[in-house]
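Task: sequence design from structure.
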């Protein structure tokens, strides 16, 4: 499994800890924010990471910024991305189980142990594949493709 990860200037140290944790699980990491600086812009990192998901260079993505909100907004502008802003363990599980999210956005301000637990839960949770969840995801995809009908 390959996971892309990126942060803006917030969360650089947390990203290093998360990368080590994921490598210890045997996960290959693509770091999409190697060169951070105090005035960098989160959309650049979100879009770079999402392109890796879309072109299948990475299986899943992890984004971090001050709140996770900006990264989530930017990520969800990329066709084919379903990014969930995650703030707890249940959200990490449900993002994948119900929405088959391929990217999560996190606040670097959370406890690092919680972040790692949420990330592992997101990675390990399978998509539930129930008819209602598939139907809903298909509606989102059809809207992206311009074929959505009310």
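Answer:
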């Amino acid at each position: 499994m390959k996971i892309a990860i990126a942060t803006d200037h917030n969360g650089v140290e947390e990203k290093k800890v998360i990368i080590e944790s994921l490598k210890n699980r045997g996960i290959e990491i693509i770091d999409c924010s190697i060169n951070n600086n105090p005035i960098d812009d989160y959309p650049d990192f979100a879009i770079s990471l999402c392109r890796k998901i879309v072109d299948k260079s990475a299986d899943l993505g992890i984004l971090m910024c001050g709140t996770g909100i900006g990264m989530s907004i930017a990520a969800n502008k990329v066709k084919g991305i379903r990014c969930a802003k995650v703030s707890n363990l249940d959200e990490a599980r449900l993002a994948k189980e119900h929405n088959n999210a391929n990217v999560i956005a996190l606040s670097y301000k959370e406890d690092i142990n919680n972040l790692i637990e949420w990330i592992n839960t997101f990675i390990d949770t399978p998509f539930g594949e129930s008819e209602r969840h598939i139907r809903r995801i298909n509606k989102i995809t059809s809207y992206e493709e311009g074929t959505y009908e009310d």
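The chain has six helices and five strands.
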